């Protein structure tokens, strides 16, 4: 469409627009005119060198590409997280699900603890360490990650994938449990002392995953924890004593062993570990 | 040699998947034939470096996949299509290929964009680039997996049943795609002997984790000479028999006196080698 009785920029003005792409009113009026005037667009097309046109198009594509990236990925990028790490972390739906699950579970835990009259510490102690265990397992279990078979053969290491997802989801669960601890009637040691057992249990799941698979490893470790806490409770051991001095020492030892095993298992995680 | 496996063994619990198998792979297309559970997928996963053998040695692209740094180097230079192509349902086709490209270290955004466009064009998925992966048919999903395998124009392509679900036109396109570069090493597993006959420089038959045959498709077909004949009815002495398209029966085994022997195909020879197990339904 070429409006017949209208102003047309001179060829020199069009060339200047192409060469320097100025801003301001002059550029705006040229651009507005170009939208409506096929004749001037054709003049312009001939005036723009092909490499220049390609560069402009690439710039436009870059901007569109940037806008298409999810806001969370852009945010992680601004925090210094590399693009592969951010993608590996955010792409899988099960990771997002596990993350939201961890947040929700922390809220539920806080509600349960705050509304319990009798031994809220016992309930908290039973459930809080399990939050990072379950959410980490859900974030990493390959059965829940549909694209795992393809991703496994890329240079991006599986061990890094495990670490990134564990930190993101397990960390969230940990923070959530800390917040839930505020719901306890007494903000004493129990609000912090569960953290080491929790860390030990999570590391244990990760260390067992290459042999047993993440799901069975998480189920076994969680079951073991529940059995230990329930047995001690039946014998009249106070919840705080369970994670007292001896409990902390046992947890630290367990965490250290699990960490050593896990470090040695990196190779298996990357090559056919059942995790 | 592009890839070499020597005396590799792999067991899952009490089941032996590979039982001391040795194999050398060079440039060109090698077809892997075998019944379900023969060990094909396990072998391909080991060559793709995603699974470690219990015993034996493997070299891929001149490197040792059991060493982490060398494994990463191998993965930079190979393309792998697993048996099950799982894609995130909320991703578009383009987003998913781009995601895999990021993990394959295509860090330059502009170059990556062009590479994603290129592989989508290769597998004829350009028109579906912005469709969600959950809307794809089985054949399209296979082509999506192929697109990710071709990212970076790899030196070694490992394809686990790549032609499953492809329509005849797409299968021809696939054959063209896979055989386009004669210098590239391609190893593919399949149940379709006609693909092997049409496409492969070499064919390898495995069963129960062992190598049964290795040679050209013509050599494989020739190995069944004198054992395939035509008959009007089922021969009780035949090892295997099925009704051909013309209504005649095609028995395999020791021919009775006066039998009309026919020139065996790759499929005939494969059946002679593997026997009745080969007739089990795919996926059984």
Overall number of strands of chain A: 0
Number of beta strands of chain B: 13
Number of helices of chain B: 9
Query: pLDDT average of chain B, as an integer?
Result: 89
Helices and strands of chain B, in order, run as EEEHEHEHHHEHEHEEHEEEEH
Structural class of chain A: mainly alpha
The amount of beta strand of chain A, in percent, is under 5%
Low-confidence blocks of residues of chain B: none
Poorly predicted ranges of chain A: none
**Spatial ordering of strands, largest sheet of chain B:** 5-6-7-3-8-9
Shape of chain A: elongated
Distance between the termini of chain B: 34 Å
General shape of chain B: globular
What's the quaternary structure here? heterodimer
What characterizes the major β-sheet of chain A?
none
Largest sheet of chain B: 6 strands, mixed
Q: For the largest interface in this structure, which chains are involved and how many residues does each contribute? A: A-B, 30 and 38 residues
Helix content of chain A: over 70%
In angstroms, what is the radius of gyration of chain A?
Answer: 29 Å
Defining traits:
heterodimer; A: 275 residues; mainly alpha; 16 helices; elongated; B: 284 residues; alpha/beta; 3-stranded antiparallel sheet; 9 helices
What can be said about this structure in brief?
By secondary structure, chain A is mainly α. Chain A is built from 16 helices and no strands.
Tell me the layout of helices and strands.
The complex is a heterodimer of chains A (275) and B (284).
Chain A: H1 11-20, H2 24-36, H3 38-47, H4 50-68, H5 71-78, H6 83-90, H7 93-114, H8 120-127, H9 130-140, H10 148-151, H11 158-181, H12 190-193, H13 195-212, H14 214-234, H15 239-242, H16 245-270
Chain B: E1 3-12, E2 15-25, E3 28-33, H1 40-47, E4 55-60, H2 68-76, E5 78-81, H3 93-103, H4 109-122, H5 138-149, E6 156-160, H6 168-179, E7 185-189, H7 193-199, E8 202-207, E9 210-215, H8 217-222, E10 229-230, E11 240-243, E12 249-252, E13 260-261, H9 266-274
Parallel strand pairs in B: 3-7, 3-8, 5-6, 6-7
Antiparallel strand pairs in B: 1-2, 1-4, 8-9, 10-13, 11-12
